[in-house]
Amino acid sequence: MDLAQRLAFEKFLRRLRAAYAIAFRAETAAEQRKRDDVRLFAMTFACGFTFMSLFIA
Q1: Which three-class secondary structure string do you get for 14-31?
Q2: Local structure of residue 8 (DSSP, 8 states)
Q3: What is the per-residue pLDDT for 10?
Q4: Which one of 6, 9, 28, 55 has the lowest number of neighbouring Cβ atoms within 10 Å?
């Protein structure tokens, strides 16, 4: 592999890594939002259950 091909291949790998990093960050952010939504639902449900238990008792 001559120098020009090697440099082109390294440039391609750098772009591929950058694209993968962007996609990974977006996927991680989406998963974090999903976890936050589930956590919010669980806390709301727990607070509602506690309030209703105290109200009934």
Answers
A1: HHHHHHHHHHHHHHHHHH
A2: H
A3: 92
A4: 55
Q: Which bin fits 2, alpha (ψ -120 to 50), beta or left (φ > 0)?
A: beta
Distances (CA, A) of 45 to 4, 33, 35, 40, 48: 61, 18, 15, 9, 5
Q: Which two tokens stand for residue 13?
A: 């790998």
pLDDT at position 1 is: 63
Sign of CA dihedral 40, 45, 46, 52: positive
Q: Two tokens at 6?
A: 């090697």
Instruction: Express each pLDDT in 31-52 by its tens digit.
Output: 999 999 999 999 999 999 998 9
Residue holding tokens 């390294």?
10
Residues in the chain: 57
